[in-house]
Design brief:
Length: about 200
């Protein structure tokens, strides 16, 4: 696993021990994801993104959030309950010299308490990457989408939440967001929810 763009382009990062279970996003899809964020106006092509902040939920060892920080994000909050993943994530953060812009919360993403420290409207992009098995089960998927709804207060107007699932899984609409717009890449599907730019 590696960073593909930005200040730390080409730097290797530690990945999860079980790559098959966690299914990290491959470079081609990661690039397409960040290109989409740029096209939506959430990232500047010149990398000048000092006011942009992210959350990486079910982060594992932090591939998406670390990519965001490399591309100039002001900060990223990582959330994962797995102790070994959190240890590897902290090692990645230290190796890349990003400790001043990264916050790691080891605990249940679905509990939602992790968002209490984040200011209202402070997050432009949220990466939600649960285990595939969770998203394939209706009740668990509903809990993940309920968490997305609960995140609405911390999202900036026009902010985007990306939820990844297997390609055969469809995600329902979430109150307060437009979408989801979906894009398929091989065996995975990315669902994009966006908060309205204008609120009545």
């Amino acid at each position: 696993m590696r960073i593909i763009a930005g200040d730390h382009r080409g730097r290797a990062i530690l990945g999860p021990a079980d790559m098959e279970t966690t299914r990290p996003i491959i470079d081609r899809v990661k690039e397409a994801l960040f290109n989409r964020l740029t096209s939506l106006g959430l990232l500047r092509p010149d990398g000048d993104n000092e006011t942009w902040s992210a959350v990486d939920v079910f982060s594992g060892t932090g591939s998406l959030g670390l990519e965001a920080l490399s591309r100039g994000a002001a900060g990223c909050t990582f959330v994962d309950q797995d102790r070994s993943a959190a240890a590897l994530l902290n090692e990645n953060i230290e190796t890349l010299g990003l400790t001043d812009r990264a916050q790691v919360v080891q605990g249940s993403a679905l509990a939602g308490y992790w968002s209490a420290s984040l200011a209202p409207g402070s997050i432009q992009v949220a990466f939600i990457d649960p285990p595939y098995a969770m998203m394939e089960e209706d009740e668990q998927r509903a809990k993940v989408l309920a968490m997305v709804e609960q995140m609405l207060p911390i999202m900036e107007r026009g902010g985007v939440v990306m939820v990844r699932t297997p390609v055969e899984v469809s995600c329902e609409e979430v109150a307060g967001y437009d979408g989801p717009a979906t894009v398929d890449y091989g065996g995975m599907r990315l669902h994009f929810y966006q908060t309205p730019l204008d609120v009545d």
